[in-house]
Amino acid sequence: MAPLLRVSKLQTHYFSFGGSRVVKAVDGVSFTLREGETIGLVGESGCGKTTTCLSIVGLLPSAARIVGGSVEFAGEELTQKRPREMRRIRGRQIAMILQDPMASLNPLFSIYTQVAEPAYYHRAIRGRSLRQRVAELLRAVRIPSPATRMREYPHQMSGGMRQRVVGAIAMAGGPKLIIADEPTTNLDVTIQAQYLEVLKDIQQESGIALIFVTHNLGIVAKMCDRMAVMYAGQIVEQGPVRHLFRDAKHPYTQALLGSVPKLGSKEPLFAIPGQPPNLAYLPTGCAFHPRCPNAMSRCAAQEPENALIAANWTAKCWLLDGQTEERYVSAVA
Amino acid sequence: MSAPLLELDDLKKYFPVSTGALWRRKTGSVKAVDGVDLAIYPGETLGLIGESGCGKTTTSKLILLQEPPTGGNIRYEGENISGLEGRALMRYRREVQVVFQDPYSSLSPRMRVGDIIAEPLEIHTSLTRAARAQRVAEVLELVGLQPEVARLFPHEFSGGQRQRIAIARALATDTRLIVLDEPVSALDVSIRAQIMNQLEHLQETLGVSYLFIGHDLATVAHISDRIAVMYLGQIVELADSLELCARPLHPYTQALFTAALPSHPDQRHEKLKITGEVPSALDPPAGCRFHTRCPHAMPRCACEAPVRKEVAARHRVACHLY
Amino acid sequence: MTTTDEIATAAAAAPAPAAAEYFTRRGGGLRFVRELPLLPLAILVPFILIAILANLIAPYDPTEPIPGAKIFEPPFWMPGGSMHALLGTDFQARDVLSRLIFGARVSLIVGMMGTIVAGSLGTALGILSGYLGGWVDQLIMRVTDAWLALPALVFAIFLATVVGPSMWNIVIILGLVYWTRYTRVIRGEVLSLREREFVKLAEIAGGSRRRIILRHILPNVMNSTMVLASLTIGVVIIAEASLSFLGIGVPAPQPAWGSMLSDGRSMLMVGDWWLTVFPGLCILLVVLATQLLGDWLRVRLDPQLRNM
Q1: Do B155 and C14 lie within an 8 Å CB cutoff?
Q2: Which of C106, C116, C158 is nearest to C283 (CA)?
Q3: Global confidence as pTM
């Protein structure tokens, strides 16, 4: 079956200071997503995960441009589309959930109006069916007494509720893909847990594909089937979540996993030395080599190629050169 | 067990709330901190965990003398700090420092790093400029930065480096207690580990105590020796870190553990049993404050506030279940 | 993380630099020159040079009539004009050009010094009001409100008549009239600065209020003060010109653009336009240049004032 989303060698650059400075925010990103699948896009600030998502939906700021690669969604090439066509895709086929619910909701309009809007425009639902649809959506995101609450305004709701409303709005157009960009960063721990459970249930019931952008590996462990780890604008490792957590191949992935404190363990944390790179001044060869505990001389000279570890599992590292072990194929199944 | 360095004794802080445009009547108070008992011992890290609105930030403000308490008292080395003046006050300010969450606003943008770190020295000591520069270099090395960076400005550093500078500043004088208010929450994941390790190393070398305030259970549990769990202005459970992780007793603590994100996809995952949102501190529920969301609530919980009991060695809970 | 975060990380953006820092750190080289605002500087620098070098440039003594000249001579390109009085003469046969040149001195000195007095007073009161709060704040704010209610020029006139006009009196008067513009804005900034963590840190470390004001608050409001100053220097220049126009500014026979305007007013009716147009043009150009310069400074130095 053809994948729902295929991003191939995507390159997005930011141009500033009159074009004299180019930041390669996304530099050759490729991944695919099948219908109903969830993928976690993991990385720290500046790695390019948000820019990747904005490139997919065509919402890049004016300083940025897609300079190469392709984004194929449901068989159509999105990078070639005109703004008017993208507007029809956004909301109806692809929806986004952003970090700050207060910024995503318009304080002047009621919950009903905002949740109804995508259904109204993209699905042409009207009148009583529209009200029913809104109530259905609010129920799906577990907002109690939807009929009364839909008449309320954003400021009357708590942060967790608002984020759920944002989720309802995202689903209202009946999209096939939802991109969630750090939706739980501003939420309390218990509220976050409730929200993630709701999101996971919805996703499994309705079969919507989900791209979950986060810097928190725990969220990926809980929510995602697959995971792509980004560093300096590239995907350094991607594959099934279980495999990466158990036996990550790329040193950065290993370092990230080792640096997160685990509940109930006082094991010393692995601290990656150095700082995340400045995208305007990237090192030669592999972008991670200055901080890599296993760096070889080759790493500084040449950018590593994508090595295939197993089906659907790749990593960009010279340590894996020539190492496509057959025994991993059976472990995947 | 040695004497505690800092003791909070039935500490209370209420913020009055008034309404009315013309005649402002006092209609109630936000009970931000309502009867907190804590002790921090020399050389240990006490973790304070809770969600927004639980009162941990207010508690830190009270400790740092930014707000006067409404009730109860805080004792530092046995002496009540509310009445401190003059030299005694300066001594407290010299020995108790803070590191804030946001590395981008905690350093004075127009001062050089060396001056920022030297400021407590200027205020509290009469060291010469050369002596101060020496101390600054010492402290910079302690936090893993080159002494040469003293002449640079804060904006030339990344978030993690700025936090190190903030920590260096907190250590410049003979500090004995540092209040760390979510010191790594605003940092990238890979930098967090650096800072956490640095903090632990500093504690081992200098014997300084930490009050580590946070909302991420795994982070707080990792660095703390003991953990206090706060809910709506009260401490609901207090225990050694490993003990708490092995046997969380209070339903709220259990909820925090359930809600904590797994560290591995195969980790057994329970459904969260608590529902709803945190009630307002303006009008907290009667009896046990957690009873409105508690899956084990009994009729007794709505009328009677539970008393703290020592249920196991160094493990206190305030819950009618015990 | 938003994309702007990513850009910020990538470009290692610095916050708005302090004025001095800006010019020294970026100083030198073609880049610095390219970034300067050419138009305002092209106007102001010549005027400043003229004011400084007045003694050397002016062809005649501005207070004495040109020997041998007639009164109300037109500029040299008109019939009746001559090369020895390029822009004509006034009602006492004094050289208009020389008077313009020396008048620049008055306008620029009063403009700058008056702004400095107003800026210092206003910033100081704004800082005290914002940081100390309480009754100090209330007092200063009420005084500011009352002061603002007074029509500036009328008040200036009143003060000038009371103390008697002289250049330095005018400087002080204008400073006293225009300080309120700074106080409000600076107070607002100090109120938000006060809550910033680095100020709290200094308080927790035991810093005295004096120390915090001088080392933490003042350097961070200097940007705003400078921007405000550059934006309001035009107002002060016009105020001085107005006072001179009304005859209570810099006293005759010292030339000032405003009094030149006043003297020449009556002759407009008979067509002797050069007595008013030239001084008016000078005022216009200088004020325009300071406004443009102020705008440029504002964009570069202070993100908070960018939307003003």
Answers
A1: yes
A2: C106
A3: 0.83
